[in-house]
Design brief:
This protein is an alpha/beta fold. The protein has 18 helices and 15 strands. Strands 1-4-5-15-10-11-14 form a seven-stranded mixed beta sheet, with helices on both faces. Strands 8-7-6-9 form a four-stranded parallel beta sheet, with helices on both faces. Strand 10 (258-262), helix 12 and strand 11 form a beta-alpha-beta unit. The radius of gyration is 20 Å and the shape is globular. It starts with a strand and ends in a 9-residue tail after the last helix.
């Protein structure tokens, strides 16, 4: 029988995270202070993050050791499995060879604990008692709740209201691990109260939930803020995915021609492709294609403006150079709540600007069509976010069929969709709808970009 699973032993798990900043052909543009518009220093970030994470954020070291205490927790589910998608290949009648790296085996069911555990550990080490954060679809919130419980830290989660209502079991998951989860906008912060006064039915956004969590952290001496995507150290923690995948693809006897993943803030897919993109940067695999997939209704990379913008609605978070739809943009209530951020990780944006990665946007209904095809062939019911990448993977495999070429496709499968069955029901009943690109809303939101001195 052909080998379907490629597994590593615990002793083979990477002992270091890979830091792409050491190999970038051009350095990242600096973060700016939201008030002064000047480059941020460590002291500016100290109220939000423990110092070790601040150091990692700006580090130029190629590899950073994973603490033993973090490795011990990783062993609960890592190394994760690489699969060959034979059944999907057969259903598509494609000559493509499709592999997928499955991150849904973690306790919260996604890739997010790879950084949640690390962040909770560093906060605990520096004596932090409480962490405030935001979450979109709930994968990050549940992962941080899980990690905080392991390190005995109190956790407060501001969950985007539309997802809070769509995904009640994510909230219950967080509460089971001891976290407190509230819908955002909430009455618990000034940012939330201001928005509720303006629009009592506001569906919320990640940018707004970030504002609430940052305000919460600034307001209490015992509290730090934690972010599940976008920042450099978060993407670095996720590179354990790609490092494992490189070893497993070598076991399978292949190197990918195309790597596909979904992007909202960028941490999941970056965790997969950053170890590979190093080979592209160094000229070892110049023709490697790296395809970032996002929703048509929130197309940050494909239609956003590359500019400095606030990371949140209220303008309290650091200003970053990124592709943005405008920090006041309120996206449509698509089911892929984790892919609704107005911006994108600066590293992903930087690599896209330099031409090392490409991007495409896909409609919601087509993503669930792909997700159902994947479930009926490979058996896994995928998260709505992941379905975006599955859609692009299927499209690339069908293109191989049309061209009569056998390419190796590696899919970053970020997690399962067991708490997203209402979205699948909506698709299967024919009620799921697409949302067009909200051009007018983006045009208005882009007027709010900060004015940066020359």
């Amino acid at each position: 029988m052909a080998q379907k699973k490629f597994t590593l032993q615990e002793k083979d798990m990477p002992r270091q995270w890979y830091n792409i900043q050491a190999d970038l052909p051009e350095p990242l543009p600096p973060y700016l202070h939201p008030a002064t518009k000047q480059p941020l220093g460590p002291a500016d970030l100290a109220p939000l993050f423990p110092m070790e994470l601040i150091k990692q954020e700006v580090s130029q070291e190629r590899y950073i050791d994973i603490p033993e205490e973090v490795q011990e927790v990783y062993y609960l589910w890592r190394p994760t499995t690489l699969y060959r998608a034979y059944a999907l290949e057969k259903a598509l009648d494609t000559p493509a060879k499709i592999f997928y790296k499955y991150e849904g085996s973690s306790p919260p069911g996604s890739h997010k604990p790879n950084t949640a555990v690390a962040q909770a550990y560093y906060n605990k080490k520096e004596g932090v008692k409480r962490i405030a954060t935001e979450t979109g679809a709930g994968q990050w919130g549940s992962s941080l709740a899980f990690a905080c419980k392991l390190f005995d830290i109190e956790c407060k989660v501001y969950m985007v209201r539309v997802s809070y209502n769509q995904k009640p079991y994510r909230r219950i998951m967080m509460e089971t691990w001891g976290a407190k989860c509230v819908p955002s906008p909430s009455p618990d912060t000034k940012a939330g109260r201001d928005m509720l006064a303006k629009d009592p039915d506001c569906p919320g956004s990640l940018g707004l939930a970030i504002s609430e969590a940052v305000e919460d952290a600034f307001g209490r001496e015992d509290t730090k803020y934690s972010l599940g995507s976008v920042l450099n150290h978060v993407l670095m923690h996720q590179t354990i995915i790609g490092q494992e995948a490189m070893k497993q693809m070598e076991m399978a006897g292949y190197y990918p021609d195309i790597i596909v993943g979904c992007v909202g803030g960028g941490s999941n897919f970056a965790g997969m492709f950053l170890p590979f993109v190093k080979d592209k940067i160094k000229g070892k695999k110049k023709d490697l294609r790296i395809v970032c997939v996002e929703p048509e209704s929130c197309p940050t990379l494909t239609k956003g403006l590359y500019a400095y913008d606030y990371g949140d609605v209220a303008g309290m978070a650091p200003i970053a150079k990124m592709f943005t739809l405008g920090h006041t943009f309120m996206p449509p209530p698509v089911h892929a709540g984790g892919l609704r951020y107005h911006g994108m990780a600066p590293i992903v944006c930087h690599l896209h600007k330099l031409g090392f990665v490409e991007a495409r946007a896909v409609p919601q209904v087509a993503t669930f069509e792909a997700g159902v095809t994947f479930a009926r062939t490979e058996g896994i019911i995928s998260a709505p976010e992941t379905n975006h990448a599955i859609r692009a993977t299927i499209d690339e495999a069908l293109k191989c069929k049309q061209e009569g070429k056998s390419r190796v496709i590696l899919l970053a499968h970020s997690g399962h969709g067991h708490f997203d069955m209402a979205a699948y029901e909506s698709y299967l009943s024919g009620k799921l709808q697409d949302y067009a690109y909200p051009e007018a809303l983006v045009k208005e939101a882009l007027k709010s970009l900060p004015q940066i001195p020359a």
